[in-house]
Write a structure and sequence with these properties.
This protein has one domain. Helix content is about 60%, strand content about 0%. It contains ten helices and no strands. Helix 9 crosses helix 10. It is globular. The model has no long low-confidence stretch (mean pLDDT about 90).
Length: about 260
């Protein structure tokens, strides 16, 4: 599929961009930099502005508190059991994305709300203890050239779930799981009925709406000046929040529940 959001690969980053990528990894507590940050690095001045705007939210635990409350009531489509013996790297990928996507949904969602002028008036939200990030090593991020045609087609089919008719972004989680094609086949079989009866779409829409309302409150904690590239930054970040991150928060959580590994 075509990539509407160009990005700088972590291995190719130099200078200030490399330093910012390292700070993002350390602050968010992940081993890889989310594609949204790597996309912003292609826009002159966008990455340093956006990261400076939301880094305090991460440090204060605001997205973490939001994630705790969100998980207590989030809609989870019922999937067939995905329990079973899998390579340890499978659970490492799921745990990492379950954490980082949920935290980023609120942090980046608040940035979108701020850029749109949707921040809700009132007292600043309270932070708290941060959720521990999984200390895991992820397998390589597979590209089409790394995989058999059958496995790459499977990755693309999975990416259609919850984001039809044409997804904007290829979700990285499936590319990280492509080293375990048998597991991805089971995931496809589990998601297909939920997609067919509308349960998956309903859950994604409901969770995205709740997250958006919460993000409008968190946006009050952002204190910065409007950048020259505000429109491009909002367009790029909202593409991830409303599509790849917005759907994968629900899908990843549903997979972990079906595996019995969601905490």
């Amino acid at each position: 599929m075509s990539e509407p959001f160009p990005a700088i690969a972590e291995a190719s980053a130099t200078g200030e961009t490399a330093d910012l990528f390292a700070d993002i990894r350390a602050t968010v507590g992940v081993r890889v930099v989310n594609l949204v940050w790597r996309h912003l690095a292609t826009l002159d001045g966008a990455l340093p502005w956006a990261w400076a705007a939301v880094k305090p939210l991460y440090l204060d635990g605001l997205p973490d508190q939001a994630a705790r409350h969100f998980r207590e009531t989030m809609a989870i489509p019922r999937l067939a059991s995905l329990a079973g013996d899998e390579p340890a790297s499978v659970e490492a990928v799921l745990a990492s994305y379950d954490h980082s996507n949920t935290i980023n949904l609120f942090a980046l969602g608040s940035l979108v709300a701020w850029l749109r002028g949707e921040a809700v008036a009132g007292p600043a939200p309270l932070g708290g203890a941060r959720l521990p990030a999984p200390d895991v090593t992820l397998p390589p991020l597979a590209s089409e050239a790394d995989l058999s045609p059958e496995t790459w087609s499977l990755v693309l089919r999975l990416n259609l779930f919850g984001d039809r008719p044409q997804p904007l972004i290829l979700a990285s989680m499936y590319r990280h799981l492509a080293h375990a094609p048998a597991f991805l086949q089971r995931v496809e079989g589990a998601l297909a009925p939920a997609q067919a009866d509308g349960a998956l779409e309903r859950a994604i829409i409901a969770n995205r709406a709740v997250a958006h309302e919460t993000a409008k409150h968190l946006a009050k904690a952002i204190s910065t000046q409007t950048p020259a590239l505000a429109g491009k930054i909002e367009s790029g970040v909202s593409g991830f929040v409303d599509h790849a991150i917005g759907k994968m928060v629900t899908i990843c959580r549903a997979i972990r529940v079906a595996r019995g590994s969601a905490l």
